[in-house]
Amino acid sequence: MTDQTASAGKKHDNLKLPTRAENFSEWYNELVHRAKLADHSDVRGSMVIRPNGYAIWENMQRVLDGMFKDTGHQNAYFPVLIPESYLAKEKKHVADFAPQVAVVTHAGGKPLPEGERFVIRPTSETIINRSFTNWVQSYRDLPILINQWANVMRWEMRPRLFLRTTEFLWQEGHTCHATEADATEETLKMLDVYERFAEDYMAVPVLKGQKTESEKFPGAVNTYSIEAMMQDKRALQAGTSHMLGQNFAKMFDTMYQSKEGKKEYVWQTSWGVSTRLIGALIMSHSDDAGLIVPPKLAPHHCVIIIIGKTPEERAKVKEKAFALAADMKKAGHRVFVDDDETKGPGFKYAEYELRGVCTRVELGPKDLEKNQAVLARRDTREKTPVQLEAVVAKLGETLEAMQRDLFQKAKSFRDAHTFEVNSWDELKARADDGFLLAHWDGTPETEKRIKDELGLTTRNRPFTLKQEPGVCVATGKPSAGRIVFAKAY
RNA sequence: CGGGGUGUAGCGCAGUCUGGUAGCGCGUCUGCCUUGGGCGCAGAAGGUCGUCGGUUCGAAUCCGGCCACCCCGACCA
Could you tell me the end-to-end alpha-carbon distance of chain A, in angstroms, rounded to an integer? Predict the structure, then answer.
């Protein structure tokens, strides 16, 4: 007879998350579910984003949208269905996206003939260019600086919650310019915006740089990215910005008349970040107790937990708690009081740590006696007694410190796992160790060989990485400078 | 699409080898009790055992087909 009570006696074992060291993906999946961020849906690879997860996205949206407005962009909206024929106009674009688009084959109760079908947008360059063609007449109409908040769909082979889902939410910027220089400037400007957002808000350090030929966006002249390192030392592309040149303009006849009266194709850019950023956030900061979110993006800054044996005690504490919460709100913090009497404090501590609330104030009769509260900080899990009058100020300080420290910790981690490698053997030995700065002869063949044999891909050529000549670690041929290799999501 | 694995209660699983009344833990609900790190006690609800077929007096269990999902690769924000 098998032991049916194997789990008896270790009752709370199944409440604990798997640890990061044990199995990083399992830890990640469990965390996403248990922190109530997202669920799998019935459609393969699609996910349901729950309020706790969506609140993070809303905060991201708010900040990013402000940054886009500050750089002169306006929001607009374009259709979710794109005529198949649009997608087909840009050769590289359709070739690369065809395997992952969902196609509408029936509408109005009838099958659609081939050639009159629609695809569900995997990205909107084509349909937006159709509009741009109508909007642009003269050089006076330029630049056009548009952003769209939307959902897109890509039938990926291997979905992962937030990182790669069949349907995902994102913003896609699309711009038209009179000159190549203007378009390049825009591409790099928006890359800077992404860098700033990642580092200052997400507390995720990123490498800003240029993608290789083979890693470029289909249809782009140049692609740039920001690359982050997760806690398992794998790389995650957190945002991309593309200089599209005149490729789409030529396919859609997006032209303007110059001052000199000549017809010219516009120069374009596109750039985007998605709900993948939520995955990046989770995998950068969270620990074995659950989610950690930097204060600038956290749905909740503080939860006040009421402790007390008797109803009288609790009533007294509760009054103080709500007063404290009101003061915190006045100071601009997102705070709530948990006065649920059906659950014990221990349960609540564990629960809110799991869900990523930045700080916790424990308030009970013993504290009131001493005119204090206990402030617990999520990332370090330190508990500090604070005089009641000082709690609001201390909360503000703690949140600032947390924002700073999370970034520093992530940056130290990344730097500690970034290595210069100078030979094939070294590249191989360090394949799982993080970011590898290596010389590469610049050919797609060598790039592919490294990918096939070692599982390493080029991430980007960081602008900050000094380019000095050397020899390729794979072929011994000359190299213009080092590039970042890593295992990637 | 290649390689591996799993489908039994909301979740996690045992039972399958050796066929014989559907089980355990968590969660949920009710009542009492409890509150400084995932409380306690008592009771209750909840299942066409992924699906279709075969063998058998009898199938979660044996045989065959199908389907779905997960993990590891190739693709990708």
Answer: 44
Strand segments, DSSP code E, in A5-56 are 38-40, 47-49
Q: How far is the CA of A155 from the C1' of B74 (A)?
A: 15
Report how far apart, in Å, the C-alpha atoms of A469 and of each of A436, A477, A479, A481 are.
Answer: 17, 11, 6, 5
CA of A304 vs C1' of B9, distance in Å? 36
Q: Give residue A168's Cα distance to chain centre.
A: 11
User: Which bases on strand B have an atom closer than 7 Å to a protein beta carbon?
Assistant: 1, 12-16, 23-26, 33-40, 68-77
Question: Closest protein residue to B39 using CA and C1' atoms?
Answer: A344
| DSSP helix/strand/coil, A75 | strand
pLDDT reported for residue A3: 32
Q: How high is the pLDDT of residue A484?
A: 96
The ipTM assigned to this model is 0.84
> CA separation (Å) from A430 to A24, A137, A324, A410, A466?
19, 54, 51, 20, 21
- State the average pLDDT over residues A376-395: 97
pLDDT at A2 over 60: no
Q: Is the pLDDT of residue A10 over 50?
A: no
**According to the model, what pLDDT value does residue A14 have?**
62
Q: Which nucleotide is nearest to A216 (CA to C1')?
A: B76
Nucleotide nearest to A8 (CA to C1'): B25
Contact between residue A302 and residue A333 where contact means Cβ atoms under 8 Å apart: yes
- pLDDT score for A439: 97
Question: Please, which contacts does A386-392 make with residues 24 or more away whose CB atoms are closer than 8 Å?
Answer: A388/A320, A388/A324, A391/A324, A391/A327, A391/A328, A391/A361, A392/A324, A392/A327, A392/A328, A392/A331, A392/A333
Name the nucleotide nearest A350; use CA and C1'.
B38
A143, two tokens: 């630049």
Residue A99: pLDDT band (50, 70, 90) is: confident
Q: Which residue has the higher pLDDT, A139 or A43?
A: A139
Closest CA to the C1' of B11: that residue is A14
Distance CA A137, CA A461 (A): 37
Helices (H), A102-234: 125-135, 180-196
A220-270 pLDDT, tens digit per residue, is 999 999 999 999 999 999 999 999 999 999 999 999 999 999 999 999 999
